Amino acid sequence: MSDEEAEFEILAESGPADEHDLEILETLEEHGADLSEPREVRVNLYLPTEEAAEAAGEELTEVGYDVVAFESAGEEEPWAIRATRELSVDRDNVTGFRRRFEELAERHGGEFYGWEAADDS
User: Would you give the end-to-end CA distance of the chain in angstroms?
Assistant: First the structure.
């Protein structure tokens, strides 16, 4: 695994999980999901420019994400990125998962806008 891939691997990290992240995990479990199993996870980012969206998208593509960029609705509107990949996200690694995307968005002057996962039920 390359250093770039390792940057977006989900790592177990200490620290409290975001309340919204825990709600997603609880909803998945309520629908019978086994959190130890990989599932399709979608991540949403907002970036200030087309160039920033392209750069962030390239980073994500290099580590195995399928990326779709959505053009801004106007000059003052951000570009949106949706990145998708099969992953296992659970209570032990969700904090590190979120942190990776917050850092990616920040590096490119943007914002992490959350994630969602299929319940596969």
Answer: 31
